[in-house]
């Protein structure tokens, strides 16, 4: 089928994170990780896309493309570089950007934590210590109070499961540990932090007279399968990954139900702690032991990860079964360094969502521009907009033009399909 319509009222946006686009030399975990030689090609997050200085240009480019909503994050280390010392000028500059977004008709969705901790917070034990939640609460209170009427929608934490797994289980990200006990503890602590921050944001905005607050936490979701159905070890390992790093943390974050081995030392009560489901979906993983791999015979991105559009529906259905809330796809994108199949990726995932019976009201493509992609540096291109990292010039890609047409028409027509999608193929 070459045609489909967006769901009624569905908004299309783009997403990014501060560490990946802003630039700026601040003491945080990813600057330390870079300095330790752990980023491909030596790409420096202090440069990234230089969005901090080019924000007006970027916002107006979004406006030109018809982007309806923008999910951005705030760099904690920028606004609180030293413990208890907030940079008021930085906060004012963020507010300026939000005001421009609103002025050109783009709805802001703010993320408070996106993988990066200030060095001072990390030195106190970071998310390994429950007592450190108070520091995050103080930071959240500062930001939400400052944003006031400008921002009514928040993501408290981006992918606490990915943060714990990559940093404390596989050791791929800072601090590079491989301790499952630490990973489980961190998931428990971050879940409690989300719930306390959820309450805080509602309380702050309620005290300001606002009744339109919407808060959630972005869960990194994927389809899990054992590498071999005939291997008991693979099946057990797959079940562990799926339960611990997806299903159990989803239950804790959304409903306050902490099943073992997660711990509820904060005595969180069972109830809803999200106003919408925030789903980040990219791929399927096959599991063997501690490792997640890609199925040999599958469609793949330039990073070798599997492209499985049907999986986005499966993951959303799990969340909607957990609690009947509206669904925001808060990140869905693909590494495609030559823009050879990104339009097909967008078409396939949007079609899967829009032809389902799911209550999907937002879709944020990841990402707006090519950016600093964590360990991959600037070598992995996810953007609808090309970034020339030599001079920071921005150029809308063909996939960006396709996305612009979908927004304008609120559908994909056969003519659009033939122009942007028909000739594209994934890697085999």
Could you write a compact summary of the structure shown?
The chain has 428 residues and is an alpha/beta fold. 40% of the residues lie in helices and 18% in strands. The chain has helices spanning 18-21, 29-35, 51-65, 76-79, 88-103, 119-123, 133-147, 160-168, 180-207, 232-255, 310-322, 342-354, 398-409, 414-420, and strands at 4-5, 11-15, 69-73, 107-113, 153-158, 214-226, 277-288, 291-293, 327-332, 360-366, 385-388, 393-396, 411-412.
How would a crystallographer describe the biggest sheet? 8 strands, parallel, barrel
Element string (H = helix, E = strand): EEHHHEHHEHHEHHEHEEHEHEEEHEH
Residue stretches low in confidence (pLDDT < 50, at least 5 long) are none
User: How many runs of DSSP E, i.e. beta strands?
Assistant: 13
**What's the helical proportion of residues?**
40-55%
Measured distance between first and last alpha carbons = 22 Å
- Output the structural class: alpha/beta
The tally of structural domains comes to 1
Rg, please? 20 Å
Q: Please tally the helical runs, counting DSSP H or I stretches of 4 or more residues.
A: 14
Main CATH class? Alpha Beta
């Amino acid at each position: 089928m070459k045609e489909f319509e967006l769901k009624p009222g569905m908004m299309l946006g783009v997403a990014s994170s501060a560490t990946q686009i802003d630039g700026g030399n601040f003491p945080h975990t990813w600057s330390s990780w870079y300095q330790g030689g752990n980023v491909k090609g030596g790409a420096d997050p202090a440069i990234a896309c230089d969005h901090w200085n080019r924000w007006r240009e970027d916002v107006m480019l979004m406006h030109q493309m018809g982007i309806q909503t923008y999910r951005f994050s705030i760099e904690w280390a920028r606004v609180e570089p030293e413990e208890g010392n907030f940079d008021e000028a930085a906060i004012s500059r963020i507010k300026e950007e939000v005001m421009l977004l609103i002025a050109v008709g783009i709805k802001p969705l703010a993320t408070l934590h996106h993988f990066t901790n200030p060095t001072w917070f990390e030195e106190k034990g970071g998310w390994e210590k429950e007592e450190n939640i108070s520091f995050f609460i103080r930071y959240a209170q500062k930001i939400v109070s400052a944003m006031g009427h400008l921002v009514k929608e928040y993501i408290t934490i981006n992918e606490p499961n990915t943060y714990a797994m990559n940093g404390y289980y596989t050791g791929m990200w800072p601090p590079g540990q491989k301790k499952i006990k630490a990973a489980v503890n961190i998931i428990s602590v971050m879940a409690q932090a989300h719930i306390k921050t959820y309450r805080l944001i509602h309380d702050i905005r309620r005290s300001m007279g606002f009744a339109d607050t919407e808060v959630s936490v972005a869960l990194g979701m994927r389809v899990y399968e054992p590498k071999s159905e005939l291997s008991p070890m693979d099946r057990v390992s797959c079940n562990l990954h799926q339960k611990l790093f997806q299903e159990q943390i989803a239950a804790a974050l959304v409903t306050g139900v902490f099943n073992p081995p997660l711990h509820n030392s904060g005595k969180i009560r069972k109830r809803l702690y999200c106003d919408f489901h925030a789903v980040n979906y990219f791929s399927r993983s096959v599991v063997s032991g501690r490792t997640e791999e890609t199925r040999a015979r599958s469609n793949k991105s330039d990073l070798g990860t599997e492209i499985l559009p049907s999986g986005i529906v499966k993951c959303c259905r799990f969340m909607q079964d957990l609690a009947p809330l509206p669904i925001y796809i808060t990140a869905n994108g693909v590494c495609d360094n030559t823009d050879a199949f990104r339009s097909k990726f967008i078409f396939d995932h949007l079609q899967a969502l829009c032809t389902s019976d799911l209550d999907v009201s937002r879709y944020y493509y990841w990402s707006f521009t090519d950016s600093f992609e964590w360990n991959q540096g600037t070598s992995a291109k996810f953007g609808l907009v090309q970034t020339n990292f030599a001079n920071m010039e921005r150029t809308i890609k063909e996939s960006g033009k396709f996305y612009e047409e979908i927004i304008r028409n609120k559908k994909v027509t056969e003519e659009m399909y033939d122009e942007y999608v028909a000739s594209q193929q994934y890697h085999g």
